[in-house]
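I am still getting used to backbone structure tokens and would like to learn alongside you. Please make up or recall a protein chain and show it to me in full. Would you write everything just below, so we can both look at the same thing?
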Amino acid sequence: MKVLIATEKPFSKVAVDGIRKIVEGAGHSFATLEKYTSPEQLLEAVADADALIVRSDKVTKDVVAAAKNLKIVVRAGAGYDNLDLDALSARKIVAMNTPGQNSNAVAELALCFMIFMSRNQLTPGTGSELKSKTLGIQAYGNVGRLVASHAKGFGMNIMAFDPFVPAEAMEKEGVRVAKDLEDLYANSNFVSLHIPATEQTKGSIGYNLVSKMPKGGCLINTARKEVINEPELMKVLEEREDLKYIADVAPANIAELKEKFGNRVFATAKKMGAETAEANVNAGLAAANQIVKFFAEGCTKFQVNKF
């Protein structure tokens, strides 16, 4: 089987070497397409691939159509909204992610964001401390749990809301369980988002929730920009001069937000959550191991599509 890594934003050399060792050690062939500059290059490269590893690269219906031999795609990371699941499922191509491999990197970035905004983006002036503040975590999965653990080290109080995690499990870890999202936002100095971008969550974080935050509240988004209702975010920041917003991916209206609100708003130029050497290697090796196990045993443990 031919395993292709297609990454516009490449893995580190250590990660690529490790992936190659796993793939070739299992008797498969290995190829890379790195720093490609056009969709046509990707379409050509996938033509004879049996397996595909990507990062944030878009696996569109055109890519699926071009990949005549493709049997499995693994997104090296947790989010998989860059994969056209309908197109993959129609061809009975397995789509997987690598949950947990980037979690600590994203969690540390969320804490970095809290400090950065609390200290006025490191510009002169009086800031505030994290100690004794309440952190609200929306979605208590791999990343949310690590954010809670790290934040406790700063002496923060932790709240969380996740309808898919039993309340007893969160309480056992010293987390106060919010009764609903309104409760979470109304009682948190910081709210950290860790929800995926789905039909249910896109545009779901807007005026009604953010306006409930206490004075000086800060919304932290290391998830996806699509979950934010950007016009409503603009409105609430206009009405509440005390609120702040920081994101790991720039909203479409970032220039206008920065012009209007200055240091109350910040966004990274490119998504940085998984941009650590450790996460880069972990996700890449996990993807390779999952592909090898799929071909050897038919294992679909981390499959995210259905057919």
